[in-house]
Structures are given as structure tokens and as C-alpha cells.
Amino acid sequence: MEENRLGDYLRARRELVTPETVGLPPGGVRRVAGLRREEVAMLAGISADYYLRLEQGRDRNPSVQVLEALAAVLQLDAAATDHLLRIAAPRPRSRARRLRPEVAPPDVVQLLDVIGLPAFVEGQWLDVLAANPLATALNPSLRVGENRIRSLFLDPSERALHPDWEETAPRLVAGFRGRVADIADDPRVVQLVGELTLGSELFARQWARHDVRQVRGKELRIDHPQVGEMTLRMSKLAVEGTDGQLLVVHHAEPGTASAERLALLSALVEPSGAAAIVQLRGSDASTGG
């Protein structure tokens, strides 16, 4: 899947750029979507043969200057340009690191118990490692052992909670690609992408675009069956000392109807002790078992 990541990315992004947007005439009937290879090479100031070698994976050591020139031609934003640079020069990773089990730090788990807001810990593969009862009451799929990207695309009950699902799905895929850029050859990532590609036409279509976006908080609407529709802010905070874990917290703007409904949901949830936590065994973390 990842044998020619640079070439696959260049090809996918080239097909999304129209001649008009880079100042070229359409040129009548075109056999390819987007720009031709020769056009990308000309605009980037490199030879067509060299660009062909990059797409075909026969040259895997382009300079930063060449990559930045290609990023400009392909109209990549800062996040996409950073992704291009990362896949062209991936960081070495040992198998030992890949097999390390994911465990939410105890102090963060303790924070989930006292924060008073729906919150959970998301691992680098987007597994829910820990969650407090209010998070699970907000969204039943926010429970230990569930995978966020799998739930969002393959669980109909999850999608029913999100009125803006069709609009937010492309951002979810782009954020997922950005999250796993450095572990894209990991067996767990390969398994997840394969499962999602087979199970969701929307995921397959968006994954093929190779869009990338940085992890950031966002506003989302949730149509909750008990308390009604809420507009919440979802904040994502890096968990110090971990390989890509995030503390995800949902909160509402004070004084709004959403804040009142979130408070009502909190009142419906009985205190149930410590937040749940899961520890994945090394073999499971690497194989998805």
C-alpha cells in the first residue's frame, strides 16, 4: 500500500488541479484529470523525465527545493506541504516502537474523573484508550476499545448523532491521514484503511484524494436522543510523553441552550467511579487484533 507514497501523493494531487487555476489554457479534450505530468514539471522548473521518475518511484530523493516547487504548483496549503516533505523523507522507526502498547497515563485518566465535561483519550491509531461516563453518555461509541475512525464511517448509530456528517466526513479523513503519516506502513493502519475502504464508499473516495489537515479543535453539532441538539466545541490537547495521544474534551459556550442541555445530560449521568481505561497488548497494537 505504501511502496510509492510520494508518487501516489503527487499523482492524486495533480489530478485535482485544473489548468485554469495555474494559468494554463484548457487545451481542448484532455485524456487525464487535472494537470499533465509535463505541465507540472514545466511549472515547477524541473524536467518532465525527472518528474516522471518521482511519480513512478524511481527517484525517491528529491531536494526540499524541488518539493516546495511542486507544492506550489499543486496548490498545497501548509499542512499538505508538510505532509509532502514528511513522506519524501520519512523518519526512521524501529519495530520495537511500533509494538509498544498504548496506555493512557494515569494522571490523565484521573483528570477525566474530575474534569466535569465529556472527555476521552484517543491513541495514535484513533482507539479510545480511556473515557469518562459523561463522554459515553454523549456518544455511546466513545467507550474503551472502540476506534474513532471505524465508528464514524461504519456505525450507522454514530452517524445519526451528527447532522452535518456529509460535510465533516472529508475533514475526518484528511485529519486521519495527517495523524498516521509517520506510521502509514504500520500493520494496524493498513488494516484500518483496508477495512474502511471496503466498508465505506465515502471513505474510499476521500482517501483517494490524499487530502491532509492538521489536528485541531472544531465546532460540531450533536443530535442527542435524550437532551436534543447541541452545538459543542471539541478541543484536542496533546498528551505529554506519549506517541500521539490526544485528550479530547467537548464543551459548550456558557449561557447557551447547548450549555443547558449538556448540564442536563451531566445530571442524568450517575457518578460511576474511575474512568475506563484499556491497555492494548503489543501484538494487538501492531496487528489490530
Question: How many domains comprise the coordinates?
Answer: 2
Largest sheet: 6 strands, antiparallel
Predict the CATH topology of the largest domain. Beta-Lactamase
Task: Kindly name the structural category.
Answer: alpha+beta
What does this entry show, briefly?
This protein is an alpha+beta fold and 289 residues long. The protein is 47% helix and 12% strand.
Secondary-structure map:
Elements: H1 5-14, H2 37-44, H3 48-56, H4 64-73, H5 78-88, H6 95-99, H7 106-114, E1 119-122, E2 128-131, H8 133-138, H9 148-154, H10 156-160, H11 165-179, H12 187-199, H13 201-209, E3 218-224, E4 228-238, E5 246-251, H14 257-268, E6 276-277, H15 282-287
Antiparallel strand pairs: 1-2, 1-5, 2-6, 3-4, 4-5
Main attributes of the structure:
289 residues, alpha+beta, 434 Repressor (Amino-terminal Domain), 2 domains, six-stranded antiparallel sheet, disordered C terminus
Tell me about this structure.
It is built from 15 helices and 6 strands. With 289 residues, the protein is an alpha+beta fold. It folds into 2 domains: 5-88, lambda repressor-like DNA-binding domains (434 Repressor (Amino-terminal Domain), Orthogonal Bundle), CATH 1.10.260; 98-287, Beta-Lactamase, CATH 3.30.450.180. The protein has a 6-stranded antiparallel sheet with strand order 3-4-5-1-2-6. α2 packs across α4, α4 (64-73) runs antiparallel to α5 and α12 (187-199) packs across α13. The relative contact order is 0.14.
